[in-house]
Amino acid sequence: MVDSTLVKKTPDGVDLTAEALLDALTPLILDLSRDLSDRERYRRLLSSLRTLFPGDAAALLRLEGDTLVPLAIDGLSSDTLGRRFRVGDHPRFERLLSRPEPTRFAADSDLPDPYDGLVQGVPGKLEVHDCLGCPLFIRGRPWGLLTLDALDPARFDAIDMASLRAFLGLAAATVSVVERIDTLARSGEEARLRAEAYRQASSQSRRELIGSSDAHHHMIKEIEVVAASDLTVLITGETGVGKELVANAIHALSPRANKPLVSLNCAALPDTLVESELFGHVRGAFSGASSDRRGKFELADGGTIFLDEVGELPLAVQAKLLRVLQNGQLQRIGSDHEHKVDVRLITATNRDLAEEVRAGRFRADFYHRLSVYPLRVPPLRERGRDVLLLAGFFLEENRSRLGLLSLRLAADAQAALLRYPWPGNVRELEHLIGRSALKALAANREHRRILTLSAADFALSDTPHGEKSPAPADVTQKSGAKDFRSAVTEFERSVVLDALARNEQNWAAVARELGLDRANLNRLARRLGLK
Fold first, then answer.
1. Tens of pLDDT along 493-514?
2. Which residues form the Sigma-54 factor interaction domain (predicted)?
3. Angstrom distance (rounded) from CA 522 to CA 44
4. How many CA atoms are closer than 13 Å to the CA of 322, on its beta-carbon side?
5. DSSP label at residue 105
C-alpha cells in the first residue's frame, strides 16, 4: 500500500501546490458539462493523470464480470486496447480490486505485471518497475481500475496522496457521467433489456466485435438498426471476417435475446442430411432414423436460427425453406403432421448469391426472401489499425494459453501486420498469432517471462494494402480477356490443383492447408469440375 503520509512534491520533485492541482483538475470539471464522446472524456482523464503524476503509462480499465477491459490508454502499445485481462490470471489486478485504497507495488515485487513489455518507446527495457493502481467505485460497487506505471522504480516515492484522492474522486465522477449518458441513450425498458442481454452474452463468450475504425463503427450501427426488428438478415463478407459473431450480436440485441440462437453450417453436412438437420424426422423415415428428432427450426422456436454458408444449400431444400419463411410451417421427414414455428432467420455467405441465381445454382425467390436486409462485414484490409486491436486480443488469449507473463509485438511486427492485405481476414490473423507465438516460444524457451514477436516470426509477404497478391502466371494470362467470374473460377481451380499437388492428392490435407471445411471443399471441387 502507498504510505498515507502527505508529501508536498510530485515524483519529479516539483511542489504540487493547491493552485497547480486546481489548474490540472479544472478542465476535467468543465468537461463534465460538455458534450464529448466517451473516448475523448477518458483520453482527457488519462492526460490529466499523467500531468499531475508523471509516469510512463496510464490506463483506464472497466470490470466486466471477471475480466478487465481497457477503455483508454496513454503510453501503452496500441494492441493493449484489444486485450482482455481475466482478473484471475493477473495477481496484481486481483490485489488492486480487493482493496479500496490506492495500492503501490514494490519494485522487487514477485507478482508479474500485466503491462511488462507493453510500454511504448522502450526497446530493450521491457519491465515496469513502479506500479500504482486505484480502484474506481460507482454507486458503491467496483467499476474498474485506473493504473499508473513507470520504468523508474523510484518514480512514485514522493507522490501526493491528497492530490491522488482528489483526482480519483473526479475520475469516478467522469465515469459516472459517461454511465449516466449511456443509460439515457437507451430509450425504453425494451432497449435496456436488449443491452443487458448483449452484455451478458459478451461476458459469457470470450469473443466479441472489437474495432475502432470507421468501417467497423458503420457495421455496428447497422447491427443496432436491424437487431430491433424481426427482418431476415443476409450477412455477406469474405471468408474469416467474423460473420457468425455478427449474427450472435444481432440476436443478443434483439427482442428474442432470451430465446435460443441455433446455428447450422450448411457446408458441413452432406446433402442427404441437411433436410433432416433443418426440419427433423420421425422414426423409420430413413435408414438409421431410430427415433423422432426435432430439427433446428423447432429447436429455435421463439428465437433465432443462423444458417452459415447458406449458398451451399441444395435447390430442393431451398424450396422447402421458402415455404417455412412464408407461413412458418414445416414437416419433419416422414411425417404428414405440420409444425408451426416462430423463428427469425439470419443467414451468411461468402458467395455472390445474385451471381449464383443468374447461374441457376440458387433460387431467385429464396434469394429475395433472404436478402430483406443485407449486411456486409468489411474485410480486415479495409479496417486500418483495427488489426492491432484484434492482434492484442489474440495475443492475450495466447499469453494465457502458453503460460507466459507477457506476449507483445515488436514495432516491425506491428508494421508488418498493418501492411499485409489479409486474404483470410480475422481468422487468418488469429491463426497467425497462435502459430507464431508457439513457434517463437519453442525457439526461445530460455526467455519465457516476456516473449516479443517480430516480423520475422510472422514471415508475411510485403504485399501492401490495396494490392492483390500476384496470381499464378498461367491464370493471369488466361484470364485477361475473360469476365471476372471466369477469371475467379480459373484462379480457384489453380489454387486447389496446386494444393493437391503439394499434398499428394490428399483432400483432407488440402482442406487444412486452405482453411476450408472438408464438405465445403468437396462442393467447391465439384463446382470446379475437379471431382
1. 778 887 877 777 778 778 877 8
2. 209-438
3. 55
4. 16
5. E
* CA 97 to chain CA centroid, nearest Å: 26
Which amino acid belongs to residue 3? D
Q: Place 118 in a pLDDT band, splitting at 50, 70 and 90.
A: confident
Closest-CA residue to 113 (of 125, 123, 105): 105
Question: Which residue type is seen at 411?
Answer: A
Angle in degrees, 0-180, between the axes of helices 411-419 and 386-402, rounded to the nearest 10: 130
**Distance, CA of 112 to CA of 134 (rounded, Å):** 17
Domains in the chain and their CATH numbers? Answer: 18-185 (3.30.450.40), 202-376 (3.40.50.300), 381-458 (1.10.8.60), 473-527 (no CATH)
Q: Is the pLDDT assigned to residue 2 strictly greater than 60? A: no
Encoded amino acid at 490, one letter: E
More confident residue, 66 or 191: 66
Please, what's the b/e burial string for 241-275 (b: 16 or more CB within 10 A of its CB; e: otherwise)? bbbbbbbbbbbbbbbbbebebbbbbbbbbeeeebb
For residue 480 the three cell numbers come to 485477361
Query: Which pLDDT does position 22 carry in this prediction?
Result: 59
Q: What is the pLDDT of residue 34?
A: 67
Q: Give the residue among 306, 292, 320, 227 at the shortest CA–CA distance from 260.
A: 306
Nearest to 519 by CA among 271, 308, 277: 271
Listed in sequence order, the residues at least 6 apart from 518 whose beta carbon sits closer than 8 Å to its beta carbon are: 507, 508, 511
Average pLDDT rounded to a whole number, residues 268-287: 76
CA nearest neighbour of 309 among 461, 520, 142 = 520
Q: Beta strand pairing status for 304-308 and 261-265? A: parallel
**Whether residue 413 has pLDDT greater than 90:** yes
Distance between CA atoms of 127 and 379, rounded to whole angstroms? 35
CA pseudo-torsion sign 237, 241, 244, 248: negative
The C-alpha atoms of residue 391 and residue 433 are separated, in whole angstroms, by 7
Alpha carbon 118 to its chain's center: 20
Q: How many CA atoms are closer than 13 Å to the CA of 21, on its beta-carbon side?
A: 18
Number of alpha carbons in the 13 Å side-chain half-sphere of residue 224: 12
Query: For the chain, how many residues are written?
Result: 531
Does 123 score more than 90 pLDDT? Answer: no
Q: 301 vs 116, 276, 294, 342, 523, CA distance in Å?
A: 49, 16, 11, 5, 30
Q: Phi and psi of 391, rounded to 5°?
A: -60, -40
Q: How far is CA 291 from the centre of its chain?
A: 40
CA distance 318 to 339: 18
Helix (H, G, I), strand (E, B), or coil: what is residue 86?
strand
